[in-house]
Description:
This protein is about 20% helix and about 55% strand. The chain contains 3 helices and 13 strands. Strand 1 and strand 2 form a beta hairpin. The two termini are about 25 Å apart.
Amino acid sequence: MLVCLLSYIDVTARQRDISLTAGTCVPMYKGIENDVVIGVNYGVFQNSGLGFRAGLQWAPSVANVDNAFGVPLAIAWRTSSRSSTERLQSGMAGAAGTLLSNPGYGQHSAGSVLGGFLMNLFSDLELFAGITPGYIAGTSSSVHQSAWGNNLQYREVHWTEKTQAFSVTLDAGFSVNYSIWRIDLKLIPIFHYSLSRNYRYHQNDASTPLRWFFSMSGGLAFHF
Length: 224
């Protein structure tokens, strides 16, 4: 079925693009820091806006476990591109709405108005959902210990266990695209849910499987 969909989209495609992205990925649990994620992605779309994406991604570390590799695959739908006039009108409306909701004249207000203008200048939106099979090359993290208080009576031990190497996540997100000629500037938030439970976070005598992650990336795409 996937092969048939790829063939159909490829034949009737109105455009293809390749993008480079970089951003952060964070487990959605208190006390665990975010990590870097880098990716390359290929997309092909037909006139209706339906499309398919496939790529490669690498995170140098996730929850202190090194070298997570993934192959994101997703079905996507993209809105039609807005004209320059439509984008300008939307930007002005966004700035006016921000000003009316925050009518001060200080520096903070000016920045909010500019943000409202810029956020509404996007060319199109893309919604997508898919799956990312992958492989985690690193081993479980080392044990971290800390102590504080009088005579160091309070202690904490925490570390992340890698339960298995092969990984699978379900992904859903969207991309806000700003087009200049054949180039897109992209802002991409994504939620990830781990089906394979690769990470377990240990803190003192308690442990928690890390299943929910959130990533925020920016990127550049070239249409051809």
